[in-house]
Amino acid sequence: MFLAGAALSLAGFLLTRHLLQQEVRTEFQAAARERAVSVSSGMEQRFQDVETLRAYFESSDEVTRQDFDDFTGPILARHPAIQSLQWLPAIQGQNRASLEAEGRRTHPGFRFFQQDAQGKLVEVPRGDSFFAIQYAAPLAGNEAVLGYSARHLGTRQDALADTLRTGAPTATGGIRLLQDPGQASGILVLASVRRKAGGILGVVQGVYRTSELIHSSIQTLEPRGLEVALYEVPAPGTEVLLHAEPSQLPVRGPKQDSGLRLELPFEQAGRHWKVRVEPAGGYFDQGTAAPAWMVLALGLAGSGLVAAYLSALLDRQEIISEQVRLRTLELSQEVEGHRRDALALRESEARFHQLVEVMDEGLWVLDPSGRTTFVNPRMAAMLGRTQEEMTGHPLFDFMAAEEVPVAQRLLAERRDGVAAQHDFRFLRKDGTELWTIVSGTPLLDGEGRVVSILGMITDITERRQEERSQMESQKLESLGVLAGGIAHDFNNLLTAILGNVN
Fold first, then answer.
1. What is the pLDDT of residues 437-446, one digit of tens each?
2. Number of continuous H segments (helices) and E segments (strands) in the chain
3. Statement: the pTM of the whole predicted model exceeds 0.90
C-alpha cells in the first residue's frame, strides 16, 4: 500500500511540476510575443517618417532650409528615436558651387567631404557626381555631418543603390553614428526623391538610434523581467547584434539557462531583422516549485488524499489550459488591434499635418486666455513672421491698439462657446495692415468646457483695398456731378442777371 501511495505521490509531484512549468512557459510566451511585435511595429512606424519626408519633397516645387526645418521639427519632437533627418541632393559639376555657397550661409566651414582609405576627412574631388548631406535637422549636434558623402562605406552605398533602383525605402543595418562616436549602434533609412519631370532629385535619410527604437516601442507595456535584443540577419544562419535592452525590472538573481526564448524574424525597409526575447535573471523560473513538493509530502501521508488531489489537479489542468488558450487568443487580438490602431493613427496624423502645412488658409489656435498655441506656416507668412515668433504670444500682440477692445469682446464670446465669423484687421511685422475674415470656433472637452479656440483666417486685404479704391472713385464721381449741377445753376442765374443789366 505504501509503495502504491508513493507511486501515486510521485506521479502527482511530476504532474504538478509539469503544470506549473507549462503555466510559466505560457505566461512567458504571451509577454515575450507582445514585446517582439511591439518592436517590429515600432520600427515600421518610425521608418514611415522617411517616406513622409520623401512625399513632402516630391510634392514641393522647392524646399528651402527653413522649409525643411519647419517640416521636420514636429516629427523630431514626437519621436526621440530619430537622431536626425537629412536631405542629400544629387550633386554634379553644374550645381556643386551653388550648393556649397548655400551651405556656407548656414555653416561657414561647409564643404563636401568624404573619408579616404586611411580614415582621414578629405574634400570630394571636383567633377565627381555623388550624394552628400545638404540639410540636417536638428542642426545642433549634427554640424559635423553637413557636406558628408559616405562613399567609402559599402553598407550605405548598397542601401543607396537599392533605393535608387527600386524607389522603395532601404535600411543600412547596424552602423556607427558619425554624430555620436559613443553610440553603440544606429540604423540609416534612405528613400530616393524623384523629380516631377523624371529623374533623381536626391535622397532623404533618417538616422535612428537603435536603443531608442527598442526602448520607445516597449516603454508603454507592463514592466516584466524580460530582456529584448534586436539582430540584423544579413544572410541565412548569420546574425549581428544591434542592441540588447535590459529588463524593465531589477534583476533578482543570476541568469539561468531555462530554455525559454522567443524569436520573431521580420523584414523591414529591404532588410531582414530578428527580435529575441529571453527571461532576465530570477524571472520565469521553471525549477521545482514548493507546490510540487507539497504534493509529494501529502501523497506520502495517504494514498486517498493523493488520489483526490490528483483529480483536482487534472481538473485544474483543463481549466488552466483553456484559460491560457483564451488569454493567448485575446493577447494576439489585442496586439493586432493595437498595431492597426497605431497604423491608422499614424496615417491620419500624417494626412492632418500635411493638410495643415499646405492649406491656403491661415490656421490659428489659442488657449482660453488668448495665448497662441499653434499657427500653420500660411498664417505666419500672412503676418510676415515665423511660427516660433508667434507661438506663446497673446493674440493682441498682432493688432493695432484700437482693435484690442473688439478682440477682447470677441474672445469672451468664444470662451462662452459661441462660434462666429467676422472681419478683423491685424498688423504685419512691417506695420502694414492685414484685413481678414476670421471664423472662430471654440473646441470643447468631454465635459463641455472650452479648452482651445480655433480660427480659420482668410486674407481679404486686396479686396478691401479694391473696395476703398472703388469708394474713392465713387466719391470723386459724385463730387463731379455736384460741381456740374452747381455750375449749371450758377450759369442760369448769371444769364438772368446779364439780361436784366442789358
1. 999 999 988 8
2. 11, 17
3. no
